[in-house]
Amino acid sequence: MVYPASVFITGANRGIGLGLVREFLKVSSVKNVIAGARNPDSAKDLKALNDKRLKVVKIDVECDKSIKDAYAQAQELVGDSGLNLLMNNAGVLTPYFTKGEINRATLMKSMNVNALGPAILSQTFLPLLKKASAHKTGDHWGCDRAAIVNTSSFWGSIRRNEDGCGHIGTIAYKMSKTAINQMGKTMAVDLAKDKILVVQFCPGWVQTEMGNIGGQKAAITVEESASALVNSISKLEMKHNGGFFDRNLRCKIQLVIATMRFLMSFTAIASSLVLFYWYELRRKEERFVSLAIFHPRLGNQMIRFASGYGIARRLKRTLYVPLYNDMKSKIVQQFWLRIANAFPKTAENFRFFPGTVNATVVPLAVFDGKQAGFTYEDPIRYVNHSSEYLSLSLGFGRNVQYIMDYLPAIREMFAFSNEIVDQGQKLVRELGLSYASAMCVHTRRTDFATYSITSEFNETIDAAAVLARRTHLKQFFIFGDDLSFMRRVAQQLQDREKRDARVSTFSEFEDFYLSSQICGSFLISAAASTFGWWLAFFSTNQSSVYYIGRQFTNGEDVPEAELYLPTWKRLVI
Known about the structure:
One of its GO terms (molecular function) is galactoside 2-alpha-L-fucosyltransferase activity. The chain is 39% helix and 15% strand. The protein has helices at residues 15-25, 44-47, 64-78, 104-134, 171-190, 222-233, 252-265, 267-281, 298-314, 327-342, 407-413, 418-431, 457-471, 483-497, 508-518, 530-538, and strands at 6-9, 32-37, 54-58, 85-88, 147-151, 197-202, 244-246, 288-290, 318-323, 350-354, 360-362, 366-367, 370-371, 389-392, 438-443, 475-480, 500-503, 519-524, 545-547, 569-570.
């Protein structure tokens, strides 16, 4: 076995990349481990590694200038020795569905990070790889000479694609991994005369934020995968050039053919075994609980997650989402995947299971034969229920009593992804707003008109003005779902209060992040809005959250205090 004197690893701040850094640092002959991270300042686990051989370099594989800057730093570190090993490991899984909303930007995000970035990075670092290769003579090939290793996936296989987008929307990811396999093979041919190895590895189904995104706990740990990968990389020879391997250096193409032959001969048995492995083997002694399917918009789904999590904790179970073959289930699934993508820690706290699991349906919050959505009922009576899968009749559960005992954990779970933080910080800079400097207002119109619970123009203006004066905030920032109404509110506030007023034109998750950064006080002008509720949840000053407007509880007699966090208050003008 041989090892590189120097290695550059992208995506090294977490997951498999961080695992690879740790494994290479265990090898004494490795002199330089250059860890590429998009946000080095926030890479706490990476920076905690105390080793003089480790150098952390800022790199964004979507930015050519960032790649060039990283190259310059790497060149200074390795000098005339060149770079022995480049590991294109950074990757993203952005949910995208064939039958879902068309969004070119989402597709390009996967292609840029997973395929185009590695291509440009490999081209940029080629002089350092050539320099390292030139120091060796003869026909020796290996990572101690010069090599490019690309992190791929079995999802890049065309032959093995029998699940389409699956339940987490993998088409963009699969396209990008197929592309990187072709890139690697092509570069392997092009760089053969320079004796630069190029190979692709599938690290396996690994317990990372990405690996757990579908709600299932992945099969192997980061340490298991990274250790096997480094061991396999140390064994690379000329015969491996251009190949696609699993982490143990077994050819993926051979494995695929063997698997397909088995499936063709024993389809029914194989399907049963796969289902057993997927849904039974990994859960060990867990017991599960679900809420009834309920499919309105994002704010409601986040309420369902928070309440469902609280109920699951109360019953010492794990929350699961049943998936049926209908449009309602698909809508719910897409919402929860979006939530998991924006808040990666939430993915560790729920599972997706087929709706066909043998669940016992029991009532919760059913009063006088009617299902409640706002009235609280303690689920503790089911804590000793014997059923492995418990399905509660409760579909919504908007009552803070379901979450109050677990609020710190819920806040921790709703930590933003690195992608949201990056984009959000960019927006904050562009807006020129400082921390907690704005009087934020959420407005809601559109479908709320049916129930006469929309934001009212004059009431919203008066309330926002009162709060701005009370809190001495000099700027207004307006969120909402009706841009024309938002602009009218902003203009009126600006003219009347002589304060700057802006409106949001950003995505839902970007709005959440902005609230967490710029809102010194928050007004929910349509009290019934769950999206407004979540904007307030993320706002910086929880003791300065107010709501106005007519509440909607579908006829249930619920104390208003049970619909909001304890520090929030109804504003009476």
